[in-house]
Design goal:
Pfam families: HAMP, HATPase_c, HisKA. With 583 residues, this protein is an alpha+beta fold. The protein is built from 14 helices and 13 strands. The protein starts with a helix and ends in a 5-residue tail after the last strand. Mean pLDDT is 83; it is low at 1-16 and 545-583. The structure holds adenosine-5'-diphosphate. Adenosine-5'-diphosphate (ADP) is lined by residues 423, 427-428, 431, 454, 456-457, 459, 467, 472-474, 484-490, 513.
């Protein structure tokens, strides 16, 4: 990811930027969903409340709608019945001669007036049931009654049944050209001696519809308000819980990062206060224990450092005396000569141990300073191999160098890196079971690396875990010829880390071990994989034999200054081998 990209993600987004970066919204929301308990719970609460409110509102709207319709229907049926009864009474009481068309027509006109007067609608129509009765008064339709509103089924029902009322829902023409809901009620009106009429009243339900719309509007407003209110309440309630949890998380992270003095603020006596108190008690205990351990460790470090320093002077004298006695061992009898030899070897070992201990105590005191200079790792490896040629020869081991890269100088402390390589190579020779050892040097843009691969004893995973521990040895019963102290790899790891690099190990019993040292080219910390593979592919020691053995420097040759070594022309693809002859 480029710096610019990182900046774009890390920078807090302003309002305008936020709107413009709408493509990031799904990712941002998904991240918020994963990371914020408050956001998640509020969203779930909102969704569930909205669903519940929606169901409640729809149900209420339906119930109210049905209720409004039922009451309006009852009202219009009663209204139509009352008007019809009044009209029928008038017709029944009128003494009009059956054949007098003029009188019948005027009676019908007065009946029409009564109907309009008695009913609450002015959309009324009457049609003769028997259209052949010629003396019967004319059909009429007032108030804009549209005959096509009545379905054939309803007309047939009204025509054939004299008694009950019939009704049906219709769509009436509205004032603005639209349709408004309505009801048509139909029944018979009988003109004595002349015949029956189908009588229809049309009522509009606009007022009921308006009431329903109004109620529905209110239900929506109340529902949305309720959802928002519940969401806001959930947000505030959760804030009172998640804020202390967030504080606790942040404080424990700071505690874990080493800020031992941080504590949680405690208010009240509720569960959160109990959590805070327990956390603070735990932090107190950790702080005091770590302080105790740190004090103890300081005392130990001082002790090791002081003892090592104190031992140095007498040891130098002992060393001189041992050297002198050893030089004259040819003059001694065989037993004394052997004792002199042993004394010399153990004094040497003691000296190595003391040097290592002093180095370790310097690490513990944090007083190690790197002396950086541009150094070619490939040439450094060549020098170390050459300097250990004799040891390899004694063990009958071939040490081969495969260096496709790593020639260009990189800033490092050559003394410390040489010590790491010497230690890795020494271990490989010691545990390599006389099989060839392959030292690989390679590099990429970020790092240079050196691998030491042997095909010897190897270690079990449980042993590999401890390989960098101080004073740890895989198996004390293993034959020791070089006489290590068990501090070598721990110092090597310290040196690698001081460079910002790393030292990794792969090992398998019977397949050997591979130690890989990786150093960064610059000051930037290491990222990504090492130029040298830690876990070897299934190669065998013989495959490495493809590299042509050549004689390079011998152990007695003074090592060349690797810092000044020229970069090889080809850079990559070179493979050399320093060979220790078999006895
Ligand atoms: P020492 O001075 O004993 O070599 P080190 O710290 O260098 O101490 O190594 C610790 C132990 O790790 C060794 O004693 C050995 O048992 C094990 N070890 C190190 N390198 C290898 C290797 N290449 N193969 C097998 N075992 C190894």
């Amino acid at each position: 990811m480029t710096a610019a990209q990182t900046g774009a993600i890390a920078a807090p987004r302003g309002k305008a930027t936020g709107w413009r970066e709408w493509r990031h919204w799904p990712d941002d929301l998904a991240r918020l969903w994963r990371r914020s308990l408050r956001f998640r719970i509020v969203l779930v609460t909102l969704a569930l409340t909205a669903a519940a409110v929606l169901v409640a509102c729809v149900w209420m709207a339906l119930v109210i709608q049905r209720d409004l319709f039922d009451s309006r229907q009852t009202q219009v049926l009663t209204d139509a019945r009352r008007a019809t009864v009044a009209a029928q009474e008038t017709l029944d009481n009128a003494a009009v001669q059956g054949g007098d068309t003029v009188q019948l027509q005027s009676l019908m006109n007065s009946v029409r007036a009564i109907l309009i007067q008695q009913s609450s609608t002015d959309m009324i129509a009457a049609f003769r049931v028997d259209r052949t009765a010629t003396q019967a008064p004319q059909d009429f339709a007032v108030g804009g009654f549209d005959e096509s509103l009545i379905t054939a089924g309803m007309r047939a029902a009204v025509r054939t049944n004299s008694e009950p009322q019939w009704w049906q829902s219709v769509g009436l023409a509205g004032p603005d050209g639209g349709t408004i809901p309505g009801i048509v009620v139909g029944q018979q009106l009988v003109l004595p001696d002349v015949g029956a009429y189908e009588l229809y009243f049309a009522y509009d339900l606009a007022s009921a519809d308006q009431t329903l719309g109004f109620i529905q509007g209110i239900l929506w407003v109340v529902g949305i308000g309720l959802v928002v209110l519940i969401g806001a309440i959930a947000w505030f309630v959760l804030r009172s819980v998640t804020t202390p949890i967030g504080e606790a998380a942040e404080t424990s992270a700071r505690l874990a990062a080493g800020e031992l003095t941080v504590r949680l603020p405690v208010h009240g006596e509720d569960e959160l206060a109990t959590l805070g108190r327990s956390f603070n008690a735990m932090a107190d205990s950790i702080e005091s224990q770590i302080k105790e351990l740190a004090d103890l460790s300081l005392v130990q470090q001082r002790f090791v450092s002081d003892v090592s320093h104190e031992l140095r002077t007498p040891l130098t004298t002992i060393r001189l005396a041992a050297d002198m006695i050893n030089d004259q061992r040819d003059d001694f009898d065989p037993a004394t000569a052997r004792a002199a030899e042993l004394l010399n070897a153990q004094v040497q070992r003691f000296e190595t141990l003391l040097t290592d201990l002093l180095e370790i105590s310097r690490y513990d005191a944090g007083s190690v300073q790197l002396e950086l200079e541009p150094t070619s790792l490939a040439h450094l490896a060549e020098d170390v191999i050459a300097s250990m040629h004799q040891l390899a020869e004694q063990h009958g081991t071939d040490v081969r160098l495969v260096a496709p890269g790593g020639y260009s100088p990189v800033d490092m402390d050559p003394r410390r890196i040489r010590r790491i390589v010497r230690n890795l190579l020494g271990n490989a020779i010691e545990h390599g079971e006389r099989r060839p050892i392959v030292v690989t040097v390679d590099s990429d843009q970020q790092a240079v690396a050196l691998g030491v691969r042997d095909f010897g004893l190897g270690m079990r995973p449980a042993e590999t875990e401890h390989v960098f521990d101080r004073f740890w040895r895989a198996d004390p019963s293993r034959t020791r010829t070089i006489g290590g102290t068990g501090l070598g790899l721990s110092i090597a790891l310290g040196d690698a880390r001081l460079h910002g690099g790393e030292l990794a190990v792969w090992s398998e019993p019977g397949r050997g071990s591979n130690f890989v040292l990786t150093l960064p080219r610059g000051t930037a910390p290491l990222t990504g994989s090492s130029p040298i593979r830690l876990e070897p592919a299934d190669e065998t020691q013989d495959e490495f034999g493809r590299t042509q053995p050549i004689e390079v420097t011998t152990a007695s040759t003074p090592p060349r200054s690797v810092a000044d070594a020229p970069e090889r022309a080809s850079g990559r693809g070179g493979a050399t081998s320093a060979r220790g002859g078999k006895p």
